[in-house]
Each structure stands twice: as C-alpha cells, then as structure tokens.
Amino acid sequence: MAQAWPKAKPKLTQEAFDEAVTTNIEDFDMSREEAITSAVEDHPIAVASQGLRDACSGQGGLTEALEALYSSLQASTVEAAAGTSGSSAAAAVPVSLSQEAYVIAHKGGAMQSLLEACKQLHNQTEQLLQVLRLLQLLLGWLETRDAFTEVQGVEVIHDVLKCETNGPEVKTAAAEVAEAAAKQVEEAKCRLVDSGVAVTLLSLLSDPSSPPPLLGAACGVLRAVTTADDERPPSSRAFVHARLLAGSQHGAIRVLLGVLRRLPAEQEPATVCKLLGTVRQIAANEEICREFTDDGGVVSCLQVLRGSAGRRDVVRSCLSALRQLAHSDGVKRLLAEAGAVGDAVRVTALHEGADDVAEAALGLLGNMVLRHPENATLCAEAGVPDMLVEVMRRHPGRAPVQRQACLLTRLMAARNPELRPGLLERGLEPLLRAAKAAHPNSCKDVGSAALRDLGLDNYND
C-alpha cells in the first residue's frame, strides 16, 4: 500500500518556522543562513522534499509525495494566482514563494527529486504536468536556476520534449520550464542551444498540428536564449545563438514566418505577441533582417498590425518587431513603400493613452528616417509632426517616449532643412526644452541635438 505523505498545515507551521528563525538569530546570535539551516529540519517543505526523494527511490507513492510537496509550497506563497486553490495534479501552481521556501526546497533537493520524477512518469500525464509546474515554480529563484544545468535539468526537459508519447500539454509545460530556467542564466541559455533543445522546439514550431500554447511556449524559449539578460558573465552568446538559429541549417526566420502566416492574430493574440517578440530577438543583424524581408515577413507583420489595430498588445509587438527590422536599409525602403508611416500614425492615435505604443511607433519611425531623408519627407506628409506634439504633450512623465520624440525630431530636421519651419510652428521647441528639464538623464543630449538641428542657437539652454 502506498504511503500517504502528510499535508502541510499552512499558516501555523510557516509562522512557527519564521519564529524559529528569528529566535535563532536573536537568542543564539546565528547568521540568517545558520538560523534557516537550524530551523529547516521540521519545516513541511523539508518533510515533503524528503518524502519525494524517498518516493523516487521506491519508498512510497509518487502521487502522494507530489501532492504533499505541492501543498507545502502552496502554503509559502508570496502571491497566489487565480485558480491555485486545491491541490489537484493539473492545478496551476502559485506565482512565487517566500525566500525561506526557495531556500528550504533547494537545500532539501526538491528540484533534483522532481527531475527524477520526470524520468519515472512516462505516460502519466497528470502527474508529469504537476512535476513540470512545480519545477517552473522552483525556478523562480536565481540560485535554483543556476543549479538547474548542474543537475542535468536541460537534458531531462529535452527528453520530455522529444518523447513522442507526450502530448502537447506536457510539451508546453516542459518548454515553459526551459524558458524559466534560462531567465538571467547564461549557462542555461547556452546549454539549451548546445544540447539541441532549441532545434527540437523549432521542429515543434514547424509542425502545423502544434497548438497555440505550445507555439507560444516554444517561442518563449527561443526568445530567452537570444536575449542577453545575465549581467554576471563578461559576455553573452545571445547574438551567436541568433545567428546560429537563423542560419540555413535551422532556418528559424523561415519557421517563425510560417507560424505568423498560419496563426490568426485575432484569435490567438498572446501567442502572436510571443512570436513577434522572438522575431525581434532573432533578427539580430542585417543579413537576418534581409532574409525575413525577402521572404515577405515585413508585409506579413504589417498585415497583422492592420488586422489587429484595436489590440494594444499586438500593436506594440508588431511595432517593436518592425522597429528592429528597420535597422536594415532595405527594410526601411520597403516599409516606406508599404505605407508603414501612416500605419504608425494611425495606431498611435487609436491608442492615444498607451505610452508603450507611442514609444514603439516613434522608435520605428526614427529607424526608418535614419540615413533616409526621403522618409522624413514621407513622415511630414503623413502627419508625424502633429503626432510628435500630441505624444509629447500626452506623456510628459514618460522618459522613453520623450527620448524617442526628441530623436525623431532631430532625425527629421537634420538633413531636411525644409521641414524645420513646420516643426517649429507646431510648438516643438518648448516641448523639447521641457523634456530636457524633466528627464535630463534620458533627454538632455538628444533634446539639445534636436534643438540644434532645428536651427536654434541656444540649444544648450
């Protein structure tokens, strides 16, 4: 008969643990680490972690052990997500744990035991899903993420992704674990690419039968491995990963474009946003941007932008992806010919209170105008000067918006002297000076440059 592991007694037990830690620090002059180590033995997370280790060794039932660990972790949440009540195997896990809970679970070997459970739970979907969701929860702490690669976590997750008997829900959860492990951990990013996880996910993205949640989760991993967000190592391989995945051997840009074309943005906006975010990260150089453009990617992005103009999240994602692509001179020309300037003006007006949309639109237009004065003329004809005034007046406290407005003003005025009178007549000078004063760290340099290129002598005032 399988052993039934005891459920945690949430608040009293956690309060008792906290009190024990405080007592150890205050009465016995322990450091916080020593106090936690001393108090950890009887904590329900420690008991449940030991129970899971025993169950993985054949001493007890995995189902009961997983339920006990879920219950003990749920009792130590910092913030609860909707739908976290109860402890069924398929229930969503809490958003995050207290610091003590992460430490206790880590020291108790919970992550290693969960990875071992992954290996033992083939064809047991509900239990495997709970294991993967608990893993994702434990990876909310940097030290746990650092340890993930050391205990072969990437390899275990890769096996789950490759297993043909695992359905889309399990593979989605496995991809979400991989994305969580890669957050701010360069080693995990490198391992996910070097071990072939990223390529496996590209294969899943290429499969027309993959459902939207799996597509979004796969995109999340690809975006993570091409994002340099770990400041600890001296360098990042994010750019190398982008070039590798976009290369002819793996064809990430072609794969992503195929998904973009077959995925209806109006029905799956969240997945489309993840996809566009991944395009933005992988389009890391001129060659990749050109490939995306040559395959019709820019036109496809504009179609999504126009078809989902009322959705702020999709609009922001489209503008951000196009902004990155517009670093390429070829893309600048194509965007201008396709009417992107007018699109940017329209969606900014449609979402007049959205500073993120305004910032992304200004950034896109700035990249289009850079080194292309003919696009500055297009901007003037499409109403961009009025848009600049409106955006700067509407978002005076948003430094990113003000900075992009200063930059775009400068770019329009620098090589197009005929546009300067119109820009000044609309009242941009006092707005530029206000931006410099309100946001000196972000806008002093670009604001002064804009005033100078507008022909004003006192641009440093």
From TrEMBL:
This is Armadillo repeat-containing protein 6. Transmembrane segments: none annotated. It comes from the Eukaryota. SUPFAM superfamilies: ARM repeat. Keywords: Repeat. It comes from Gonium pectorale (Green alga). The lineage of its organism: Eukaryota, Viridiplantae, Chlorophyta, core chlorophytes, Chlorophyceae.
